[in-house]
Structure formats: C-alpha cells, structure tokens
Amino acid sequence: GTTLGTSAAEKGRYFGAAVAAQRLSDSQYVTILNREFNSVVAENEMKWDATEPQQGVFTFGNADRIVNHAQSRGMSVRGHTLLWHAQQPGWAQNMSGSALRNAAINHVSRVAGNYRGKIHSWDVVNEAFADGGGGARRDSNLQRTGNDWIEAAFRAARAADPGAKLCYNDYNTDGVNAKSTAVYNMVRDFRARGVPIDCVGFQSHLGTTLPGDYQANLQRFADLGVDVQITELDVAQGGSQATIYAGVTRACLAVARCTGITVWGVRDSDSWRSDNPLLFDRSGNKKAAYTATLDALNAG
Ligand code: G3I
After folding, report:
1. What are the DSSP calls for 73-128, one per residue?
2. Distance between Cα 18 and ligand 1 center (Å)
3. What is the ipTM metric for this complex?
4. What does pTM read for this prediction?
5. Mind telling me the catalytic residues?
6. Tens digit of pLDDT for each residue in 21-31?
7. Rounded to the nearest whole angstrom, what is the distance from the C-alpha of residue 87 to the centroid of ligand 1?
8. Which residue minimizes the CA distance to atom 16 of ligand 1?
9. How far apart are CA 247 and CA 184, in angstroms?
C-alpha cells in the first residue's frame, strides 16, 4: 500500500491516530488524517470529565464529532477510556465507597451504551497498575472501592455494548517487567474466571530504546487468548526514532493477535509531548519515521 491505513489493512490490521475534536477544523490535519489512517481514538473527548461533567449529565458533542468523522469515512473507532484515576470530573474526585462505585459503574453503562455498536474496542480501564517493581495496583479513589472494581467495570461494559472488544490499557508494560507481569496475571485470572476481557492495550509511549522483549511480551498476552493492540504509540525524536517505529510495527505484524496500531497524534505539533515523537512534522511532512513504518507494514 501507499498509506499507513491501506498497508495495515493488507496485513489484516488497522492503523489509527488519536484525534482532538478541535483539530477537525484544521484542513492540513484532516487531509493527513483522511489519507493515512483507518482508525481513530478520541485523545480526550470520551474521558469521564468530558462525558459526565456533572453527575448524571452526559455530554457527547465533541466525542460525537470524532465518531461522525470516522464513521462517514469508514474508519473504525477505539473508545478511550471508561474509567481512569485521572481526568475524572471534580464531583467524582470527591466521592468514595459505594457511592463512587455505583457512579463509576453507571458511567460505564451509560457511555458504553450511548456508543453501542459504534466502537471497535473500548479501553474499559486505563492505567490501574502502579509503576515500579511491586506489581501492585495503583492507589486511587476507584481502587479504594475494592479490588473488584476492574472486573465490575468489564462486566458492565459487556452488558452495555456486547459487540465491542473490551481492553485493559496501560503504559510501561511494553516489555516483560513487574508491571506488565502484574497485568498479565490479572488477565489470566479474568480469563480463568470468565470475566469478559478481549484485549490488552500497550500504550507504547517510548523513549530512545525499544525493549528487546517487546514482541515476546505481546505474544505472552496473546497466548492467554486475548487480542493485543498498540494503543498510544509515540517515540522520542532522535537517531533511533525511525528504527523504533519500524520495530514496533514488525513486532505487531509478527504476532497474529496484534490487531492494530494507533499513534498518539498526527503531527509533532499535535502531540502532548514536546520531543517531536510522531510520524509527521510540524508542517505536515512525512518524517523518516513515517517511511520506516510504511516500509515495515509493506515488508514480506
Ligand atoms: O480543555 C482544557 C481547556 O479548557 C483548558 O483551558 C486547558 C488549560 O490547561 O486545559 C484543557 O484540558 C487539557 C486537555 O489535555 C485538553 O487539551 C488538560 O489540561 C490536559 O491535562 C490534557 O492532557 C491530556 C492528558 O492525557 C491528561 O492526562 C493530553 O491531551 C492527552 O494526550 C493525554 O493522553 C494520555 C492518555 O489519555 C492515557 N495515556 C497517557 C496519555 C498521555 O499522557
């Protein structure tokens, strides 16, 4: 293929980008988005603070702008994210116990239900594990409602949108390490007990190196019977940026259950990072990392 999306599709994958609703009025941005990508995810617009700013009051305007743009062009949509310790509305930040648990599950049901039939994969829960060597859950108001909050969220999401693949999504889980092993053990337990989980998202916010066991880590999760997805890829600018993008792409293609790659923005100027981590430069030109990614998609 000659674009990221068509080349990925030839390999049975999608290639997506995180989209910010306000950039849909930037014609250069939209030109690149429509040409290169066949999947989108909302960078912020489906998060709890955006979709339920007051308890029980749901606002989907900006998220709908992204979903409508995608649907009218045949792009699939990832949902990000139903529950997360960050970007909660103020009212939820101040809640605890069964009141918070009930509000959180209601949020999952209402948002997943609103988009029922329109979402390829939902990040049901985002970043629930702590960094470091302990393999522990991250402390948060949600975690303090009880260790079963994650499985409760997955069950509610399944009931609300039975057609969506339900993912757990995290960062610093890109190689085999204590954090990724803790996630692995949770996924294995969920599969054993019939908790509805279909996929694991590896954010892959990368620096100047790619873990040597990146592909092996994807494969061990796939071997649990879940799909794996690269969900928020971006890579520090530097001599190795193109090589790392190509390595991530090759790893996904080498794992049968790696169903797609999403980059966390379009141009460097659209990124949350300041180190030019994306595939297009600030003028919208293709970077070396773009060519390396495209070539990796088209190899073999
Ligand atoms: O919308 C408000 C605006 O009204 C206000 O004037 C402005 C002032 O700060 O803030 C705006 O909100 C910002 C929002 O992005 C939209 O631009 C928030 O401050 C800012 O914190 C928020 O950052 C987002 C971040 O998640 C929040 O934690 C980034 O755009 C987004 O790229 C980033 O994405 C996360 C994924 O969801 C999860 N994985 C890590 C990834 C990178 O941090």
Report:
1. TT-EEEEEEEEESSS--HHHHT--HHHHHHHHHHHHHHHHHHTTTT-SEEEEEE--
2. 12
3. 0.94
4. 0.98
5. 232
6. 999 999 999 99
7. 8
8. 44
9. 22
